[in-house]
Every structure is written in C-alpha cells, then in structure tokens.
Design goal:
This protein is α/β, with parallel strands linked by helices and 506 residues long. It has 14 helices and 20 strands. The structure holds xanthosine-5'-monophosphate.
Length: 506
C-alpha cells in the first residue's frame, strides 16, 4: 500500500489515480490520521499532497515529525514538500514573485526521482511559497529560474520533495517521476489490479452492510450499473435495484439493462412508466419545464416503488470522483438542471448513503465494470442525459415522435459503429427537430420533420468540438434515416462546438 496523505490540494485524487495507473495500490487518508493508523497499513511509501496553506501559519495542516523517522519513503508534493522542509528544520518563505503554470525546470538526473529522464523540461507549478533553506541532510535536485528548490532529496532517509505537480499531464515525464518514486525508492511490485480493487471493495461493503437492506436507483448508465454489479456481488439479494424506465431510453435500451442483471441474485424491479411520463408531459415544450417535470416524476415513481419495500438501511449512489469535484464547484450559473447529479432522495427511509465509486475516475469505473462481468454495451455506454430522449425531441413530445427518434438514433449509432468510430467519438446521437420542410419522394411531395445529427469529441464534456465525421459515414446515415424512418425527409449535421452551443439541444 502507498498512502496519499491529503492536505487539501486540488489534485489529491489525481495523485492516487496515477499511483493506481502504475498498478500500485493506494489509499488517500486525511493528514490528521494518527501515525499508528498509517503504520498499521504497512505502507511501502507515503505521498504528501499539495494544499492551499502556508506552512508557517499557526493553523496550517501539520504532521508529526516521527513520520519521517520510520524508514518509510516519503514524497512531498508542493505544500507537502514545504511541510517536510519546515518540520525537518529548513525554511520556507514567501517570495515577491509567485510561480504559476508551465515552468522550465532543470533536473539532476542522479536523483532517484529523475533517473533516466531528460535534464530539463516543463513542469507545472502552482505555488506562492518556496523553500529557501534546506533541512540538514538534504540537497537540491531540481530548480527553475525563480525557484531554487524545485525538488529536494535526502536519499539516505528516503525523503524526497517536488515543488511542482508531477501528477498533472502538463508536467513532462511527471508520471515517470512518480513511477521512479514508487519503483526505485519504495520498491513497489506493480502487481495490483482492478480485480484486487473489486475484491477488496466487495469485502469492505460486505462487512459494513452486514445483513442490512440496500436500495439502489438504477438508471442504466455506466456508474449506477457498475455500482449495482458491485453491490450484487457483495450482498446479493439484500440489494433491491429499482430501474425506473421512463420510456425515453434509446431503442432496446430498457431491455438491455434488464438483461444485464437478469442472472444476478438481486431483487430487480423494472417500472415501466412510459405512459405515466407521456401523460405528464403532454403539451409541454419548454426545455426547463420538461426537465423539471421529468425529474420530479422520476422521484415520485421511485418513491412509490421504494414504499413497497419499506425501510432500508443503505441507499447506494453511483457518484464518481468527477461528480464530487463538480458539485463542489460553487455557484456556477444554471444552464440546465441536470436531474441525476447529486440529487439526494430524502423521500426514502434509510440510515446511510453508500457511494462505492466515489474515488474512481470514469475509465476506472469502466475497467471495474468489465472486471465485474458487465457487458460491453453497458460498460462503454456513452453518456446519456437523465431525461433521455425527451430533451432530444424539440417541442412537444408524443409517442409517435419518440418512436421516430429512437429509429433514427439507432441507425446513426449503427453507422458510427460500422465505421469504427464508436469509441473515438465521445457522444453521438440524433435530435428530432420541431421543424418540417418540403421534400419529394417517389413522385410525391412530402412535408416531414428534420432530424439533426450531433456528434462531439471532448474529454470533460464541459467544452466540446463537433466531430469531423467522414462525409461517407454521414451520407450513409442520412440515406438510411430518410429511407427507413417514416416522417423524416431531411437530415442535418450540427457543426457547432460547445461553447457557444451545448452538447444537447435542450
Ligand atoms: P450539455 O448539453 O450541458 O451536456 O452540453 C453536457 C453533458 O451532460 C449530459 N447531460 C446530462 N447528464 N443528466 C445527466 O446525467 C442530465 O439531466 C443531463 N443533461 C445533459 C449531456 O448528455 C452531455 O454529455
């Protein structure tokens, strides 16, 4: 185990993730964790994260000096390295000029951290303070124009520090530096796998839950599906999954979700609520009203089902790490009300919430899903908005429009998959516009709806580019949609990026 000791920096989980990427198991613990508890985990190394404070302030986070005297390698990053210097008798100061962003850095490649790497390169700096006097036994192992101690080392005591952030991709070779620490200094084996993670998590969940009852709202998305698979392995039929099928899923999707869980020993409840939702939404065309009504109705349907089960002990949520960061992001303007982000159902009687994926990034969640035996069509599912196709039908929703859109969307997805683009385009779908235009088919006039195709590439879904799909793929999709889907006589491709557009149309 490697312990990542958290001092409140913004990249803490990213450090943990980098360690896991090196196939080394790691746990993030708060800096206040008593030393005994840390030692009880038999760590092969400890990494101190960055943090927003200055070490010389009275209330800034500290650790006991003894942590450096255990013979366990310690790597300090940013605040972590300053803290190490401060506690061990060095000096930290606040210079006139702060360093922020990409910074040219010179490395001493005889330091274990930089062994085998170039002698200079770009590192990512984000600090005000720096170390101006090293503790005894330390020497400088990297510097920049403005920072004399960009890295320091005391190889005898296995203590290392970096002022910059090796965990972010802006630092060239940063990951190799972490790798050097883990393998050269800590002697990590690098044999940890997602399978181990699954096994440990299942074990921990089992111990925690005992014979308690667990409830999970399954949306069919990657996160809730992986959470369900994890819980099913941990507690079997103590778990009830309620899958509210609002009818706005893509073609066949409701059945696919059900099929994926059919052989698991859990209580799987699928509520077919399409009629109920269609009734509720009849005549509604304002996007925000649609979203709000769907969100509310969703809760009501879920509540009705949950009532039948009665009191449960635990409610499971498929929150993943990026959700945790985003929900802490403050008072950003509401562009769209996302109905399944962080919404806490206080209408269900439960003791405690369990979020088993809270520390994982999306690709790790997918890897875990594979490990737990979920089918690819669930694990690699593209993001799908909670309100589903309802917000891809512009204007009033009818059952007819819903079926039309499902068909068109299905064809587009088939063509994208056929062209081998389904993993490289991050999200792609069809939108049923509320616009009709004149066409000619056979010898007759048509007056039908227009389908818009949307496909984007993005890493974080906060900004996105429209995907440069080859014309022949667009052509094939367009031909098939107009020929095979009744009520459609025109297809457009959306070539707007986000911003200024959003990914979804509503
Ligand atoms: P926008 O349209 O805001 O979408 O650019 C960004 C990403 O979020 C998805 N999205 C949602 N996801 N609940 C969700 O879980 C929602 O209500 C919702 N609305 C949009 C959208 O599909 C895209 O991936």
């Amino acid at each position: 185990t490697v312990i990542v000791l958290d001092f409140g920096g913004q990249y803490n989980q990213l450090i943990a993730r980098r360690v896991r990427e090196c196939s080394v198991y790691c746990e993030v613990l708060p800096y206040k964790t008593p030393l005994d508890e840390i030692l009880a985990k038999n760590p092969i190394g400890i990494i101190f994260t960055g943090g927003p404070n200055s070490v010389y302030l009275e209330n800034s986070p500290k650790v006991e000096k003894k942590i450096f005297q255990q013979g366990i390698p310690v790597l300090g990053i940013c605040y972590g390295t300053q803290l190490m210097a401060h506690i061990l008798g060095g000096h930290v100061t606040s210079p006139e000029k702060r360093e922020y962003g990409k910074t040219h850095t010179y490395y001493h490649t005889d330091c274990a951290l930089f062994q085998g790497l170039p002698e200079e390169g770009i590192s990512w700096m984000s600090h005000t303070d720096y170390i101006d006097r090293l503790p005894e036994g330390f020497k400088v192992s990297a510097h920049t124009a403005d920072c004399p101690t960009a890295a320091m080392e005391n190889p005898k005591e296995k203590l290392y520090g970096m002022q910059f952030h090796p965990e972010v991709l802006h630092t060239q070779n940063g990951i190799s530096m972490l790798r050097n620490f883990l393998f050269n200094v800590c002697g990590a084996k690098g044999d940890w796998t997602m399978g181990d993670y699954a096994k440990n998590t299942i074990h921990t969940l089992r111990e925690k839950i005992g014979d308690g009852k667990v409830l999970l709202a399954l949306s069919g998305g990657v996160d809730s599906s992986v959470a369900a698979a994890l819980l099913s392995k941990a507690v079997g039929n103590q778990l009830t999954c309620i899958f509210v099928d609002h009818g706005f899923m893509r073609k066949n999707e409701g059945d696919e979700v059900q099929a994926a869980f059919k052989d698991r020993n859990i209580n799987f409840v699928r509520v077919n609520a399409k009629e109920r939702f269609l009734c509720k939404l009849a005549g509604i065309s304002d996007p925000e009203t649609k979203r709000k009504m769907i969100g509310e109705e969703f809760i009501r349907v879920f509540e009705d089902e949950a009532k039948k089960i009665g009191k449960v002990d635990y409610l499971v949520q498929g929150t993943i790490y990026p959700d945790v960061i985003e929900s802490g992001a403050g008072d950003a303007a509401v562009i769209k009300s996302h109905h399944n982000v962080g919404g806490l159902p206080d209408y269900v009687d439960f003791k405690e919430i369990i979020e088993p994926l809270r520390l994982l990034f999306k690709d790790e969640v997918r890897a875990l899903g594979k490990e737990l035996g979920l089918p690819d069509y669930l694990v690699y599912r593209q993001p799908f908005p909670g309100p589903g196709l309802a917000i891809r039908i512009i204007g009033e929703i009818t059952e007819n429009k819903l079926l039309t859109l499902q068909e068109a969307d299905w064809i587009f997805r088939e063509e994208i998959a056929k062209a081998g683009l389904d993993r490289s385009i991050n999200q792609y779908f069809a939108v049923l516009t509320n616009m009709r235009s004149v066409g000619v088919m056979g010898d007759g006039r048509t007056y039908d709806y227009t389908i818009a195709l949307r496909a984007v590439t993005t890493t974080d879904f906060m900004t996105a580019d429209w995907a440069h799909i080859p014309y022949d793929v667009l052509e094939a999709a367009s031909n098939r949609i107009v020929n095979e889907v009744r009520g459609i006589n025109r297809v457009c491709y959306d070539i707007t990026s986000k911003p200024p557009a959003t990914i979804e149309w509503e």
